[in-house]
């Protein structure tokens, strides 16, 4: 029996036992919740395995609060990306049971409350300046129930730092490589492991880096097979994709 069928059976049993009204059941069965400024996709988890994620940048505090409220009504995991410090303080004041990860700029369901996968993804970060993107990837994967191991400040200018961790990296099922400048770390890691590598270029670098465009093109042109490249600064995408692969592995 699928999770979707289990959920539907539980809902019908709750109506039958008068634990849930018909109107409440209809609300839970709706495909989306209309908020005026947004239509919240309530069936995302059934289709893709994880609820709708809130992109916080550009949204007001009140809009984010309203969307979180809808997700909580439907007992969904909360993941809000790209939330600055000031906005986060107001949101956490409203929902004190959520937590804010400042480096990642993420508000989410407490990570310790989420059971983790058997296998892990490695988050490999070239330098300290790349940490916000690396942490966005790491926290995203953790909220999605994935065991994460972090290997930070192991860029190619001191490549011996990477080699001291390579056996642990190889034992993971997916690697996410986060790097700026010329993005060389991505090709190095891809040539040393036997699993998929998601490369995330960052906008960190001097003028000719072109705010990450140089890094992006370098990663796209990698000679190492098994590499997939995300958009500039898209740590969320790296974490999400890695989580999907590990969930798929553990389903079989």
UniProtKB/TrEMBL annotation:
The record's listing under Gene3D superfamilies reads: 3.40.50.1970
Q: Which GO terms describe its molecular function?
A: hydrolase activity
List, alphabetically, the SMART domains matched: AIRC
Stretches assigned to the PurE domain: 119-251
Signal sequence annotation: none
> What is one Pfam family matched by this protein?
AIRC
Q: Which GO terms describe its biological process?
A: 'de novo' IMP biosynthetic process
* InterPro entries (alphabetical): P2CMN_synthase_LarB, PurE_dom
Q: Where are the transmembrane segments?
A: none
Report the protein name in the record: Nickel pincer cofactor biosynthesis protein LarB
**Natural source organism:** Staphylococcus shinii
